[in-house]
Amino acid sequence: MRNQSPLALQLQGYRLATAEIFYRLPDHPGLLQTYVWQDYDIAPRYPVLNRFLEFWTHQIEGPLHSVRVAGKQLISAAEIQVGTLFRIQ
């Protein structure tokens, strides 16, 4: 997936997903910090985001508190007209 262009991903049903990740600081667990993640993903399961959160859980010290996700479909099938030529490399 990573070697595909954003247009190729969108034509496969991916949409731009943004997640606001709230996590606790390891040295100050009473404080929350935020991290904003953005990538192309498939709603509603968000497999790319879930892989990232799995990585976070195992590799990053700050325990997750909550995640807020928003997604935006940038290209829809109705916007692609017959005769439109896309060159995907």
Structure commentary:
The protein is of the alpha+beta class. The protein has one domain (6-74). Helix content is 21%, strand content 33%. It contains 2 helices and 3 strands; from the N terminus they run αββαβ. The chain has helices at 6-11, 47-59; strands at residues 15-24, 32-41, 64-72. It has a 3-stranded antiparallel β-sheet. Strand 1 and strand 2 (32-41) form a beta hairpin. It starts with 5 loop residues before the first helix and ends in a 17-residue tail after the last strand. The model has no long low-confidence stretch (mean pLDDT 84).
Write a compact overview of the structure shown:
Helices cover 21% and strands 33% of the residues. It is of the alpha+beta class.
Keywords summarizing the entry:
alpha+beta, elongated, 3-stranded antiparallel sheet
Work out the radius of gyration: 17 Å
Structural class given helices, strands, pairing?
A: alpha+beta
Uncertain segments of ≥5 residues (pLDDT<50)? none
Side by side, the strands of the main sheet go 2-1-3
Order of helices and strands: HEEHE
Contiguous helical run count: 2
Strand proportion: 25-35%
Question: How many strand units?
Answer: 3
**Main pleated sheet:** 3 strands, antiparallel
Helix and strand arrangement:
Elements: H1 6-11, E1 15-24, E2 32-41, H2 47-59, E3 64-72
Antiparallel strand pairs: 1-2, 1-3
